[in-house]
Design a protein that fits this description.
Order of helices and strands of chain A: EHEEHEHEEEEHEEEH
Shape of chain B: elongated
Distance between the termini of chain B: 36 Å
Structural class of chain B: mainly alpha
Oligomer: heterodimer
CATH superfamily of chain A: Class I glutamine amidotransferase (GATase) domain
Strand order of the largest sheet of chain A: 2-1-3-4-11-10
CATH architecture of chain A: 3-Layer(aba) Sandwich
Number of helices of chain A: 5
Distance between the termini of chain A: 11 Å
Helix content of chain B: 25-40%
Number of strands of chain B: 0
CATH class of chain A: Alpha Beta
Structural class of chain A: alpha/beta
Radius of gyration of chain B: 16 Å
CATH topology of chain A: Rossmann fold
Number of helices of chain B: 1
Order of helices and strands of chain B: H
Largest interface: A-B, 13 and 6 residues
């Protein structure tokens, strides 16, 4: 039976929301994995690194979590091709783990941002995004202070060329400019894939937009895509 | 700004003070450089300098 593991570092706080959506809305078994149970990750078909403030964001968001022993095992699973999704703080951890390129800096306006944003779908060529149309504009909530994605120019060129940017911050009609950039991210980037597209990191929260009662299920399509891949492998 | 007209630019950084016991200043520098690369700094976004005080 397919099982998704949700990593709980000290102060990860979106794990239960993610578990609820995976189990009740998508219908897959999902367990929280406490960071000390480092070998438990090998029992799972896919992993989510949820949002929160792992290790209190001390030093830098995600930096200490990337050195927790469980993270070495997450890296191993990523290399084996298992689906691994990092949401918000999870994205920060994945960049610190160097599974994803770039880094997340303090927002251009150094305030905590908590709102819905429009995102333009840039790449549908992955199991996470194959339920979207290219150029489709979706809406997801963001909630972060360190979401300003930075990547060096030569690496930006590489990820652009290889379709490794699934979502960019946009306006309601898909326009992409500094006006539709909430946090100062390079090229309005809201999410990135690793080379093989089994690892996705994203600042917006798909698990907070996955239930009919919330009037927005755009995020559910991302999680469903991930679960289908986990079921296949 | 507050009358300090000579100021052109201000930058705020992070300072980490480390006390350690090693055989030489060179060794201390080497160890700290490794700490910076692995954890204390993120080479994608940070520059760092190491200063040995005594």
């Amino acid at each position: 039976m397919t099982k998704i593991g949700i990593i709980q570092y000290p102060s990860s706080n979106c794990g239960y929301d993610t578990q609820k959506v995976l189990e009740e809305e998508i219908g897959v078994k999902a367990d929280l994995i406490w960071y000390k149970e480092k070998d438990k990750v090998f029992e799972y078909d896919g992993l989510v690194l949820p949002g929160g403030f792992s290790y209190g964001d001390y030093l830098r968001a995600g930096a200490i979590a990337a050195h927790a022993p469980i993270s070495k095992n997450i890296k191993r699973l990523a290399k084996e091709g298992k689906p691994i999704l990092g949401i918000c703080n999870g994205f920060q951890v994945l960049t610190e783990l160097k599974l994803l390129p770039g880094a997340l800096m303090t927002n251009k306006t150094p305030k905590f941002l908590c709102k819905h944003v429009n995102l333009r779908v840039e790449s549908t060529d992955s199991f996470y995004t194959n339920k979207f149309e290219e150029g489709e504009v979706i809406s997801l909530p963001i909630a972060h202070k360190e979401g300003n994605y930075y990547i060096r120019e030569k690496n930006l060129f590489e990820i652009e060329k290889n379709n490794r940017i699934p979502f960019k911050y946009s306006g309601p009609d898909g326009e992409i400019s500094s006006k539709t950039n909430p946090n100062g991210s390079t090229a309005n980037i809201a999410a990135t894939f690793d080379k093989t597209k089994n690892v996705l990191g994203m600042m917006p929260h798909p698990e907070r937009a996955s239930e009919e009662v919330l009037k927005n299920t755009d995020g559910k399509r991302i999680l469903e895509g991930m679960v289908e891949e986990a079921q296949r492998t | 700004m507050l009358g300090f007209e000579e100021v052109n630019e201000v930058r705020v950084g992070k300072e980490i003070n480390i006390k350690m016991e090693v055989e030489s200043k060179e060794k201390a520098k080497e160890k700290i450089r490794e700490m910076c690369e692995r954890l204390l700094a993120n080479p994608v976004i940070h520059e760092y300098e190491i200063e040995i005080l005594n």
